[in-house]
């Protein structure tokens, strides 16, 4: 009958290594979260906003939480929220404009003439969300990590210069659903709905005569080669709002220390930084447009008066939708504008 011989310490270590079982250590508690990336890795949305935030999370958690980005997207841009809510991805970032029926209250940050600074609007949007919308459950199934704005949308056309609102009549313009479509319809434009990732092809094939976008989006997706004219609309023709969310179960499974650390670099802090980067990207884009010969003008006082008259119904319509959800929309819009005007962008 064979004897069981106790193994010495060195032998135990060798045996563990042989069968591939790592000994317990501090690193055994490290957590890796998968963040779905749906833009190219060089796009500033990833390279200057999301990737640096992931680095700040790792630093804040002292390396306990690491965020890894997917090599390619697990779903189309409009599916980003569902990817996180269902746990297909741990973290996602999306554009609320692509699913306007889901994010009714969040559309306050898309309304016309809110301001010229993405940073100021992002901070204002977060504060308004916290005061008016947090209890409404629009992000149910996830932990909302931040909301923010990109730069205000301007008017870009391929061939026709735009000097009056009437010049826009019957032009085919790429516009995502929700607020962009409402704006386009109010201006007599024929809206062609598509995510920004499809705009390049639409312009290259002449399917649309132009688009409503912030300057950086034109540059980032290389659409400026097809666009000869930009009309700057003071305070923005309208805006787009974004979210970053984590699967709720994943968030709840984190330790209190890790949640606290992640939150220290999220919320308003994250919103401010995202908006600041977008302002800088718009500045870079407009410098490039001027150098390349794009004809850039600013809407005249007469054109602005007409735009505000035509688009007043967009804001009033949202206020009615907010009221149907028990929210004082008029107060929310007033707070958004006041907070944006009060905010001093960081250098």
What does this structure look like?
With 347 residues, this protein is α/β, with parallel strands linked by helices. It folds into two domains: 30-150 and 240-281, D-Maltodextrin-Binding Protein, domain 2 (3-Layer(aba) Sandwich); 154-238 and 293-342, Bacterial extracellular solute-binding protein, family 7 (D-Maltodextrin-Binding Protein, domain 2, 3-Layer(aba) Sandwich), CATH 3.40.190. It is built from twelve helices and eleven strands. The strands form three sheets. Strands 7-6-8-5-9-11 form a six-stranded mixed sheet. The model is unreliable at 1-28 (pLDDT under 50).
Compose a concise summary of this entry.
The protein has 347 residues and is α/β, with parallel strands linked by helices. It is built from twelve helices and eleven strands.
List the helices and strands and how they pair.
Elements: H1 9-19, E1 31-35, H2 44-60, E2 65-69, H3 80-85, E3 91-95, H4 118-133, E4 142-149, E5 154-157, E6 172-174, H5 179-186, E7 190-192, H6 199-204, E8 210-213, H7 215-220, E9 229-232, E10 241-247, H8 248-253, H9 256-263, H10 267-292, E11 295-298, H11 301-324, H12 329-342
Parallel strand pairs: 1-2, 6-7, 6-8, 9-11
Antiparallel strand pairs: 3-10, 4-10, 5-8, 5-9
């Amino acid at each position: 009958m064979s004897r069981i011989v106790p193994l010495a310490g060195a032998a135990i270590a060798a045996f563990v290594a042989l069968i591939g079982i790592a000994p317990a250590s501090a690193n055994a508690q490290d957590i890796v979260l998968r963040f779905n990336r749906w833009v190219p890795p060089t796009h500033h949305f990833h390279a200057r906003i999301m990737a640096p935030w992931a680095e700040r999370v790792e630093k804040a958690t002292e390396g306990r939480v690491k965020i890894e980005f997917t090599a390619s997207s697990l779903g189309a841009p409009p599916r980003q929220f569902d990817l996180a809510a269902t746990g297909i991805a741990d973290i996602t970032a999306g554009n609320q404009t692509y699913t306007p029926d889901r994010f009714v209250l969040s559309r306050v940050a898309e309304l016309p003439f809110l301001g010229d600074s993405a940073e100021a609007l992002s901070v204002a949007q977060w504060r308004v969300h916290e005061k008016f919308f947090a209890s409404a459950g629009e992000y149910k199934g996830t932990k909302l990590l931040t909301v923010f704005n990109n730069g205000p949308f301007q008017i870009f056309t391929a061939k026709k210069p735009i000097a009056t609102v009437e010049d826009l009549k019957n032009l085919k313009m790429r516009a995502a659903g929700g607020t962009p479509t409402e704006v386009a319809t109010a201006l007599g434009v024929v809206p062609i709905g598509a995510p920004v990732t499809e705009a390049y092809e639409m312009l290259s094939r002449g399917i649309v005569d132009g688009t409503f976008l912030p300057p950086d989006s034109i540059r980032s997706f290389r659409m400026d080669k097809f666009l000869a004219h930009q009309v700057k609309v003071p305070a923005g023709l309208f805006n787009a709002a974004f979210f970053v969310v984590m699967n709720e179960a994943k968030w709840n499974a984190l330790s209190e220390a890790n949640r606290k650390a992640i939150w220290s670099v999220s919320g308003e802090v994250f919103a401010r930084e995202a908006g600041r980067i977008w302002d800088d990207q718009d500045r870079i884009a407009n410098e490039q447009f001027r150098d390349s010969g794009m004809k850039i003008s600013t809407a005249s006082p007469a054109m602005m008066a007409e735009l505000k008259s035509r688009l007043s119904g967009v804001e009033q319509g949202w206020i009615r939708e907010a009221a149907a959800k028990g929210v004082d929309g008029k107060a929310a819009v007033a707070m958004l504008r006041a907070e944006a005007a009060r905010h001093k962008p960081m250098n």
